[in-house]
Amino acid sequence: MPPKREATDDLSSLRQKSRYDYLAKREEVKLAELRQQVQEEAEEERTNPTLSKRELEQFARNRTTLQLAEDRARIDQTSSSGFFIPDSQFDDKAELLHKKHIPGPNLPHTSEFQQWEDDQISRSLAKNRHARTGTTREAEDDYEFVFDTTTAPQWTSDSDGQILDPEKQRLQTQLDEAELKIKTIDETRRALPIFKYKEELIAAIRDHQILIISAETASGKSTQIPQYLKEAGYTAQGCIACTQPRRVAAMSVAKRVSEECHVRLGRDVGYTVRFDDRSGPDTVIKYLTDGMLLREMTHDVTLSRYSVIILDEAHERSLSTDILAALLKDLVTVRSDLRLIISSATLDAKKFSSYFRDAPVFSVPGRRFNVQKYFTAQPEANYLTSSISTAYQIHLSQDKGDILLFLTGEEEIEAAATSIEETARKIGNRAQELQVRKLYGALPADEQAKCFEPTPPGCRKLVIATNIAETSLTVDGIRYVIDCGYTKENQYNPRTGMEALCVVPASRASVNQRAGRAGRQSDGMAFFLFSKHSYWNELPENTVPEIMRVNMASVCLTLKSLGINDLLNFDLMDKPPPEALAQGLELCYTLGALNQEGQLTKVGRSMSVLPLEPMSARVLLAAEKFGVLDECITIIAMVSESASLFMRPKDKKVHADAAHKRFAAKEGDMLTYLNVWREFEDSEYSNLWCKENFIQYRTINRARDVRTQLESLCERIGLEPSSNPTDHIAIRKALLSGFLPNAARLQRDGQSYRTLKNGLTVYIHPSSGLMEARPRFVVYSELVLTSKEYMRNVFEIDGQWLSEIGPMLYKQSDIEKLGLEKKMPKGQGKVGIDGQ
DNA sequence: GAGCACTGC
């Protein structure tokens, strides 16, 4: 039997071979090529005086790259390599698994893993036997020699951290970056799955005015198709527009394409999103958010400057994409020169095709890795606890790779994170470290950023996220996805005007998308915390499109301003409930945006210019009359972002509440916002001030952007600037003019309110400053159904104002009658005027 | 006396 030292070396060299030999060889060849290239470039630079600046820069870059690569090669020769795994690591895991410290759902394992687990346990027992008989060394040797590198999962230990010194890591990163650049952009483009179909694709677009492209993610469609079209000459008479449902996507794709085309962003290739326009007269490939293209249509109904419109990610069915699709379907019959491309996921292509008059479907395969899906045998009673134990099962039994756990909201995520960290403390150093990271929209930006930090060697990262990680944000290095199978969905009831955020089963499309997050860089695994039966029988096939479950008022106004008069017969892919449309139209009429014939009025025209809900837009028009435009712009901007304005960390609730109380205005929350804004302005928009006062910096900054935009739009629609900071009566009257249908009156019990319009029983939200005062008449900006029916953003009004400002809605006599005579529903007694 | 999935103009 060989001595131990040699055994260790043997093992490590074996492992090194399997992992690094080919890498080293590849690098050697690459280095030689690079040396040659740099030499040739140097020669060229010396002899050719007509080189462009770009070429010279490229040469310089290549020289730096070579330098780095040679440094790296030197370090490699001097550093000792080793991927030895201390057996204690295995021992601990085996013990853990053997004793089954972690209870969990009956997770289906791969058979190899099962085999490995059994082996580990028996080996561990054997080793202990050896230890007891005093043959420790033999035991160790024995253990290392039976270790089979081909079947056992590759565990790494803390010692990896000591092997890689920071300097080497830094160089490695730089080298990786440089390597990416060596691979010329053209090469990358050619490697995309879509490249093979380039000619066919161009031909298809030439032959068909509408084309559905069904392509999987990572096929390169968003970046390549506009470039192919440009090469095919479609930019000669017009511009190519490519819509994205999200701002960041529009911006990053535009940046990428401008690099591929070797042009400066904002010239030939640009993007347009709200608050940020980087496009100009030369722009021929323009990425924009779907909402932005819709807004452009209100200025130019035929989109005359565009020759091609690409609706990207149409399968996500965002509100704007759906409306655009309907408008464009119409537009192509008028503009025969316009090409329309709808890009969607494979599953929905058929639906899009039949909607667009049986347009042909062009399929492009993607470049995704395989994700193995696992279901639970039985439905899980509590997805929160089973998701936690599943995470631990993966952590203790599976190969390297980070875990992504989908839960429904902030509360669950915080609870899960606390519980997992507690368990981690109990296990201590018997398992490798598990870093828990949280990810949800309301999380402050610096906390969010922690998810994207690379996982240190010897650690595993567990990201607990909401839907935000499904499409909006991508975490690298995920190999395992755990999905609770539920989502929070906003449901709007057009009859009552109430919103509710409900936990509902996620759709099959959604859970598949989530599972796909495990297969971005290598093969992955997805663990669904529901049974296969539920998957097919309880999960809806697709998420209900946004247009089916939102307030239609804003949509009505937009469509009317585009000259669509018959909304009920407007050819949308999925038609919203007629009730919702009727309610939307009615509101527009109440606000004076539509006349009795349902035509857009002058007021309505002005309102449609403002990127706001109709009620908020109406406030600004009224504010001019009351001479408080400046104040109302601030308030409306803050209200539109109010949901996550005040921060309330769990551990500092008392401090936060105290800080927020300072801003409270006795007339109501709307004036509280005004106070917050004024102090923020006085602090010169300071981040520190926000921290001290528990205000979300990100949110208030967005409100600042909205405010600036509204200011300039108000000027454009001809509103006279005015300000009167102390006249709180005028401010509230202006607000009432917009939120007119949202008035409520205190009921006899002195607790609840009754909405004047629908007679619903509602309550002031406990976060409101008017919670204790409970004035007789209040107005709110929205109704939310949580544990109770709550009014949010409440302010006090005088009952007299209702008939003064909204005589068509409220008659003074009615209001008085309501107080004295009208009976409550269900015979609960009379509504009295309290305090009298 | 209590919660806020995610976008977008």
Automatic annotation (TrEMBL):
GO terms for molecular function: ATP binding; hydrolase activity; RNA binding; RNA helicase activity. It comes from Pseudopithomyces chartarum. The keyword Transcription regulation does not apply. It is an enzyme of class 3 (hydrolase). Residues 390-563 form the Helicase C-terminal domain. Pfam families: DEAD (PF00270), HA2_C (PF21010), Helicase_C (PF00271), OB_NTP_bind (PF07717), WHD_HA2 (PF04408). The lineage of its organism: Eukaryota, Fungi, Dikarya, Ascomycota, Pezizomycotina. GO terms for biological process: mRNA processing; RNA splicing. This is RNA helicase.
